[in-house]
Structures are given as structure tokens and as C-alpha cells.
Amino acid sequence: MDTKTQILSIAADLLQKQSMNGFSLQDVADRVGIRKPSLFHHYRNKDALVADVIESSIQAFRKRMEAMQDQPPARRLETWLSVYVSNIGAGSKLCPVGGILGDWDHLAPDLQQRAQRLLDLQQHWLEEIALSGKYVHDANAAQEWAEDLLMIVQGALVLSRVRHSPLPLERAVTRLRERLASEGTFSSPALI
């Protein structure tokens, strides 16, 4: 792994575990094993580094969407849920957007826009799933459906972090799967 990739990976981990104000460029440099001035070769400041972390999350999500585009809507939805349950690290981490929310009013507009793009990307993907799976009948209902899912999962992720336990997220996702199964979205409470 090259140095820039290491910097990005470590910064993402710190952002999700400690939030934007919970780590410094020195913390990143120490974990990478380089001197702090060497970071400036790759990033002019912490905002630029965090912006790249969020942009990487956007690109990773887009790749996941592209890889899943031929899958049935229920499978795509289950994949989205499993990202939160399995990949983020509920109880110890937040999503990248969650790592900057506490500082929202003080963030550079570019960081706010990137974070909004990541959330919008997820919401639009969920809306498309709702419509293509015929879980709702129109675009307004799809928007509400997608917002509900985002609120449930993001809120449970925050509660898991505060309680230092994956259980709130796991319970919320289990209830959500059960609800979706009862509505006919899933044929069983979990597809995985």
C-alpha cells in the first residue's frame, strides 16, 4: 500500500472512531510512520484530507451500486443494510458523515457538500430500489421510504456508538428486516 493510501485509510478510521476534531494530522502521521511535514506532500490541511476520505466513500459506494445494479431490489437493499452491520463497525465507529456532523456549522462548504453528496447518493439509491421493487407507488413515497430507512439505520448507528455496542444497530436492522418482510419487500427477515 502506498503512503497516500495508508494516510487515507488511517484518516478514515480515525474520522469514524474519533470524529473530525478527535484526531490531528500528527495522529495520522504517527500511525502511518512518517513525519507530519510529509503529510503536507499529500494534503495541504486536515479539511483536504477529510474531504478525500468522504470522496473515497462516495466512490466506494458508487462501485458497490454498479456491481449490484443487476441484482433484484431486495438483494440491493440487503447489501446496503449489511454495509452498516458488517463493514462500518457498529459500536466503535460512525459512518464518515457521522464523523463530521458534530462540527457541521463550522465545516468548510466543500466538506458539507461532499457529505451531503454521500447521503444523497444513498437516498437516491434507496429511492430507486423502492420504485423498481414496487415497494411504493410514486416518487414522493419513495423519498419518504428512503428517508425512513436512512433515519433508522443512521440513528441506530449513533446509538450503537454512544453505547459502545453493536446491539442497537443490530436490533434496528433486525426490526427493519422484519417490517420489510411483513410488507413483502423481503421474502424472509434476512437474505444473507
From TrEMBL:
Any matching Pfam family: TetR_N
InterPro entries in alphabetical order: Homeodomain-like_sf (IPR009057), HTH_TetR (IPR001647), Tet_transcr_reg_TetR-rel_C_sf (IPR036271)
Protein name: HTH tetR-type domain-containing protein
GO molecular function terms noted in the UniProt entry: DNA binding
Keywords assigned by UniProt, alphabetized: DNA-binding, Transcription, Transcription regulation
Domain HTH tetR-type: 1-61
Gene3D superfamilies xrefs: Tetracycline Repressor, domain 2
